[in-house]
């Protein structure tokens, strides 16, 4: 089924998980998204503004210029993992995600928030509170939500087979699974 969208720009604001860290160019989920859009005959341009190592603070700082330059119809926000890795306050992450959603919506763009989870070694309380941030922001800002970007990759018994040697960045083979998590929600938001 075709989605009635013409000349749409989709802005992906993410970190290394969207910036193809350790992968050959054109093999990450964002590149696969472009192929999927073409296959579905959806006329859309994807701008990948993802930077390895970026935090929600960095994304928030970069977003106004990206919105002004690209006038996206949809902003996909895939940030927060590096906040957790750096031990940044959860309130800061939540405030930044909310501010990015609001700034995008003020320009008329729809927003899809792509959630992340942290490993259990961060402690149960932190892990649960971090995961809730995405749901809370999505509900408060009325955005689309992918609860966990790495579902079927990081939460399976043999998860190490999906990751590069650093055990943080997914291998190329994991990116179709990642797109499979994101695509249904992205398609809903595009409508």
Residue runs with pLDDT of under 50 for 5 or more positions? 1-6
By secondary-structure content and strand pairing, the structural class works out as: alpha/beta
What is the makeup of the main sheet?
5 strands, parallel
Instruction: Count the E strands.
Output: 5
CATH class: Alpha Beta
Range of helix content: 40-55%
Structural Rg: 16 Å
Provide the CATH topology. Answer: Rossmann fold
Strand content: 5-15%
**SSE order in H/E notation?**
EHEHEHHEHEH
Explain what you see.
With 191 residues, the chain is an alpha/beta fold. The chain has helices at residues 29-39, 56-70, 81-85, 90-106, 124-141, 175-190; strands at 8-14, 44-48, 74-78, 110-114, 144-146. The chain has one domain (8-190): Rossmann fold (3-Layer(aba) Sandwich). It has a five-stranded parallel β-sheet with strand order 2-1-3-4-5, with helices on both faces. Helix 4 (90-106) packs parallel to helix 5 (124-141). The longest helix is centred in the C-terminal third of the chain and has 18 residues, at 124-141.
Secondary-structure blueprint:
Blueprint: E1 8-14, H1 29-39, E2 44-48, H2 56-70, E3 74-78, H3 81-85, H4 90-106, E4 110-114, H5 124-141, E5 144-146, H6 175-190
Parallel strand pairs: 1-2, 1-3, 3-4, 4-5
Helix pairs in contact: 1-6, 2-4, 4-5
């Amino acid at each position: 089924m075709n989605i009635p969208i013409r000349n749409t720009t989709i802005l992906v604001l993410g970190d290394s998980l969207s910036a193809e860290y350790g992968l050959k160019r054109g093999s990450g989920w964002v590149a696969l998204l472009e192929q999927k859009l073409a296959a579905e005959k959806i006329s859309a341009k994807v701008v990948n503004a993802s930077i390895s190592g970026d935090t929600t603070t960095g994304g928030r700082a970069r977003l106004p210029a990206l919105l002004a330059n690209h006038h996206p119809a949809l902003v996909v926000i895939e940030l927060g993992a590096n906040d957790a890795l750096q031990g940044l306050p959860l309130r800061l992450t939540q405030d930044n995600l909310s501010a990015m959603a609001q700034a995008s919506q003020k320009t008329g763009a729809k927003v899809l928030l792509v959630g992340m989870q942290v490993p259990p070694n961060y402690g149960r309380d932190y892990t649960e509170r971090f995961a809730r941030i995405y749901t809370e922001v999505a509900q408060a800002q009325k955005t689309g939500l992918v609860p966990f970007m790495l579902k079927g990759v990081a939460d399976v018994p043999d998860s190490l087979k999906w990751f590069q040697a650093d055990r943080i960045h997914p291998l190329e083979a994991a990116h179709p699974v990642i797109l499979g998590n994101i695509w249904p929600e992205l398609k809903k938001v595009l409508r």
